[in-house]
Design a protein that fits this description.
With about 170 residues, the protein is α+β, with helices and mostly antiparallel strands. About 30% of the residues lie in helices and about 20% in strands. The protein has a 5-stranded mixed sheet, sandwiched between helices. β2 and β3 form a beta hairpin.
Amino acid sequence: MSFQVKEIELRVGDPGSEAWLEVHHAANRHVWGAGAQRISVEEVLDIAPRRHEVRRTFVVVPGGSDEPVASAQTIRRTRENVGTAGVWLSVHPDHQRHGVGSLLLAHCEESLRDDGCTRIHEHSGSPVENGDAATEFALANGYRQTLADLRQDPWPRARSPHSIPDSTRRHTSS
């Protein structure tokens, strides 16, 4: 099957824009389950101006179809760190591990290089306990891991007040 990368313009109420976002939502549900965070096209459009960013939006569609199987946005900063960019990329779970994500990532990287960016700095939002396929994908495409996120889920496990450092414990006067 042949695939084509297309640049689209996000617009509120546009079916193509909604289909682009649904790929991201489907990928999130695949990782996080039914309660995965959802956002709207309007929220996506609101982010860039507030963060002083220029975003370009891309989809991958199979030949002869307008239904996206992968979605991405390049995120280029316009103030600090202007040579550093980001990529938000998702592949629909039904189309993962077929080269579609690598095709889209290569297109996004080329687009960012053409825009003068010299570094892509991005993070994976996948939980390690699910295998973190996003990090595996990035490593397989030539990226290197530079930071590790650490997390503690204190609930439902109860923490003793004695396990909390004195500097963070609330003090009450009697």
